[in-house]
Amino acid sequence: MLFRSLTFFCGAALMFSSGYSIDKAATQPPNILMIYIPILMTRVFGIGRPVFKYLERLVSHNWVLHVTSDLRKKLYDALEADSDPLSENYQTGSLLSLLAEDLGHLQNLYLRTIFPAITSYFFCLIVIIALGWFNLLFGLTILLLMLVELVVVPLFSVSLETARRAKQKALKSDLYANYTDQVLGAGVWKIADRKADFLNYTTETSKEMRSSHHKSNRFDWSRDFLLEVVFGLMAVALLYFTNKLLTGNQAQANFVGAIVLALFPMSDAIIPVSQGFEESTTYKDSVVRLNNLHHSKKELTNQVDLAPKDLKNISLENIKFTYKNEVNPIIKDFSLEIKRGEKVALIGPSGSGKTTILDLLLGDLQIDQGSISINGNDISSLQQNRSKLFSVLNQDTFLFNTTVYANLKMANPDVTDARIWEVLEQVQLKELFETLPEGLNTVVQEAGARFSGGQKQRLALARVLLQDTPIILLDEPTVGLDPLTEQKLLDLIFDALSDKTIFWITHHLQGIKYIDQVIFLKDGAVEMQGSPKELYQTNDHFKSLYLMDQGLLAQ
Ligand code: ADP
Ligand code: MG
Predict the structure, then answer these.
(1) Is the CB of 326 inside a 6 Å radius of any atom of ligand 1?
(2) Of 36, 283, 497, 510, which one's alpha carbon is 20 to 30 angstroms from that of 467?
(3) Ligand closest to the CA atom of residue 476
(4) Of all atoms in ligand 1, which is nearest to the CA of residue 348?
(5) CA distance 257 to 253
(6) Domain encompassing residue 102
(7) Could you read off the pLDDT of 324-354 as tens digits, one per residue?
(8) Whether 314 contacts 501, CB under 8 Å
(9) 356 in the same domain as 271
(10) What HEC string does 305-318 produce?
C-alpha cells in the first residue's frame, strides 16, 4: 500500500514539477538554475513512478501468492481426506479444477479489488485532508466529488451488474452443456439429417448472451465516462480555487498550472475502484465455495491387519444397496461365498449392478443392509491394507504417459528388474519389448495410444502380477476385444493367476471353462447359481445361453 501510494504520489509530483517548470520557464527567469531544480525533480519522479509501481506489484503479488498457497494446501488436504475409501463425498477431477480456479479468482479479488480500493481510499483521504487544511471549502468540494467517484458509483455498479453477471454465468454454463451435447451427438443429428435444428440448437442462447454482454459493455463505457466527467469537475474546482487563492503574486501563480496538472495522474487511483467493485461480484461464488470447504479428515478406525497369506474366504450376506439420491435399491438381496483359490464369475446384463457389487466389496461404497467380510472381518476394517489384498483389472486400463517401466513399477516399487522381465514373459510381451529400440523405456504416450487393446490389457495383467495380491477382481477386462484376442487374454489371465482367488464380472459365457462357480444377477438378486457343469445339466436356460455363446445354437 505504501508503494502504491508512493506511485500515485510520484505520478502527481511528476506532473506538478513539469507544470511548475513550464510555468516558471514562461516567466523567463533571470537564471537557468531557477528551473534546474524542477527539471531535476521531473527526472526523479519520472523514474520513481515506475520503480514504485514495480515494487508495489512485487510486494502485493508476493503477499497474495503466499496467502493463496496456504489455501491451496488446505484445499488439497481437504480433498485428499475426502478421497479415502470410506468417504461418501466423492470428489471428482472437475470439482478439483473448479476449486483451483476459485483460488485464482480469490487472487484476482485481492489484486484487482481489495488492494486498489484500500490504497485509493487512503490516498484520497490524505489529499482531501491536505486540501481541507489549505482551504476548507475547497477540501469539502473535492471530498464530495471523491465520494461520488469512490462510493456512489462503485455501489451503483455492483447493484446493477450483479444480476446481469449472474445471468451471463448461467447462460454460459447452458452453452457449455449444449455445445458438449452437440459435439458428442453430432453423429445422431447427421444420421437424422437435421442440420438446421442442429445449428439452431444453441443460437438462441448465444444471442441472449451476446446481447447481455453488449449491455454490460455499454454500462462500463457510460460508467467510465461519468467517472471522467466527475473527475473533470474536480479539475475545474481545482482551477477555480487555485485561481482564487494563488493569484496574490507572481511566485504563487507559478503553482496554478502545476497543481491542476498534478490532479490528472490521480485518476489512476480512482477509476479502477469502480471496476474492481463490479468484478468482485464475479468472485463471490468462489469465495463462498472456498469458505464451505471443510476439512474433514476421517480416520480409519478399528483396522485389522490381515496377512494376505491368511485369506480363507470372502462372504457377502444378504446385501442391499441404494445409490444416494435414488429411491429404489440397485442391489436388493445378494449373497455369495467365495473360498480361497476359487474362481467365481458374476454374470448379468449391462446396468444390472455388477460393478456396484465390486465397489461394495472393495469398500468404496457402503451397503445399507447385510454384511461383507473377509475371514469374518468386516470389509470396513480392512481398508488400511486393502492394496495388499485386492488388485483390480477392469475394462479401461489406464496407462500413464511415461515409460512402460515406470508404469509397471507403479504396481510394486520393491520389485526387481528380473521379476519385471519374468512377468512380461508370462503375459507374452517379453519379445515385443526386446525388439523395441528403447525396450522398457518406451514411452506409453497419452492414454496408452501406442499399444493395441490386447497389449494394454496384458500390460495391466503384468501390473496385477507384480502387485501379487491374493484376490483379483476382474471387471469385464475383455470388453472391446475381438473374440480371438479375448479368448487368448482369458487363457493368459487364468493361467497366470491359477493360484489366486478370482472374482470375475462378465456379461457372457466365453471363458466359462475356467470357472468353479457362476452367479447370474438379475433385478438386484441372484437368478441362478452353481458350477457351470451342474447348471449345464440341470438348467435349460443356462444350457441354451452356453450353446449360443459357443455359436452352436442359432438364435
Ligand atoms: P453394471 O456394471 O452391471 O453394468 P453398474 O453397477 O455400473 O452396472 O450400474 C448399475 C446401475 O446403477 C446402473 O443403472 C447405473 O445407472 C446406476 N448407477 C451407477 N452408478 C451410480 C451412481 N453413482 N448414482 C446413481 N446411480 C448409479
Ligand atoms: Mg460395469
Answers:
(1) yes
(2) 510
(3) 2
(4) 3
(5) 8
(6) 2-161+222-287
(7) 889 999 999 999 999 999 999 999 988 999 9
(8) yes
(9) no
(10) CCCHHHCCEEEEEE
